[in-house]
Amino acid sequence: xxxxxxxxxxxxxxxxxxxxxxxxxxxxxxxxxxxxxxxxxxxxxxxxxxxxxxxxxxxxxxxxxxxxxxxxxxxxxxxxxxxxxxxxxxxxxxxxxxxxxxxxxxxxxxxxxxxxxxxxxxxxxxxxxxxxxxxxxxxxxxxxxxxxxxxxxxxxxxxxxxxxxxxxxxxxxxxxxxxxxxxxxxxxxxxxxxxxxxxxxxxxxxxxxxxxxxxxxxxxxxxxxxxxxxxxxxxxxxxxxxxxxxxxxxxxxxxxxxxxxxxxxxxxxxxxxxxxxxxxxxxxxxxxxxxxxxxxxxxxxxxxxxxxxxxxxxxxxxxxxxxxxxxxxxxxxxxxxxxxxxxxxxxxxxxxxxxxxxxxxxxxxxxxxxxxxxxxxxxxxxxxxxxxxxxxxxxxxxxxxxxxxxxxxxxxxxxxxxxxxxxxxxxxxxxxxxxxxxxxxxxxxxxxxxxxxxxxxxxxxxxxxxxxxxxxxxxxxxxxxxx
Length: 483
Description:
By secondary structure, the chain is mainly β. The strands form 13 sheets. It has a 6-stranded antiparallel sheet. Strands 4, 7, 9 and 16 form a 4-stranded antiparallel sheet that branches. Strands 17-31-28-29 form a 4-stranded antiparallel sheet, with no helix packed on it. The longest helix has 14 residues, at 50-63.
């Protein structure tokens, strides 16, 4: 896929990851026509650590500056520092004392450190164009997004360029400052200036420090609501009617005959609502309506599978401390809300058959904020009316006494049946023999068949659970004994 850099040496583009590529760490590389190269790691996981998320975002932005990446080992300068309070850093000011070619840019990075030395983990970076270097005041490098730095953790500012003339201001003990006079004390006791010729081997200068200013974000509100949009599985290409039968062409709808389909967004209200799917053919499905609205339907029409009993919001959230939080809210058309946290399942007490809109509330304080990364997903699920568990086969002689004992949570409206497999492969139901109450509405149940005359040489036990969204059965500690 060919890409062309702009006048600043930056490129933008995207590519689709091929199917069947497993998750994990992959190398993404770009090669230019004049031997310039750039490479970065792409990490794909179901759930990823906050540090990994930051690193992925940073690497993505680094890849967009191919010309600068080639120059990252060209005589860098670094300054270590630490903050007393955790802050979201938005940019850095530097003072330049000389400027070389305006076509040569300067990269400014914040890196992690090991034993006081910058390592290769770049937390955030920014670009100063050569033409923007100011020789009479401060030159600002603004990051594309704020980066949170932990309190009392040592980081490093790393400055990189391939221009031999570009120079930044430093303060050195014993030297003369034309503004403040002689430097008679250590300029910056928290960090140290370091130099390198390859960004790998560093030499510290204990009596000198970089002239710089860090900018921390100051938030104007302690909370913010972000509308993430309406939830839908597919968007209809067309919705037509023949008599009372409606045909919806919606690629990727995933519906089956008998499913509930939530249809909304049609300009003719008769098409909107929760309907039972009567037929499915490829990308199309049908349902029946009352009335005779105009056909085809108009509007942006979307489809969501109904009878949802469970939902979960998959999102990347960085809570920098206990004062920050992100809450996700699903809002129904009547204004009622379903609230939850990221990556935590929500079990509904009733089937959801309404379209919903998802929003996120970010809460923090004037200096700290949570971060909600792009790509939040809402996943809906349905609880089956019934389900069964079949054990492995175990020895059982004809006429033996067979007993199954387990702990069960069976709220009103749910139930469990127990069966043993007979010698001919069919199943024989067993009645409850005893029930012993336990804590938290659990009970220990025992089902016994004595004698089990229809057994072969082996048998199995089958548990069939039934329930609703409001009555969810649970089973644990299954033990089976045959004597």
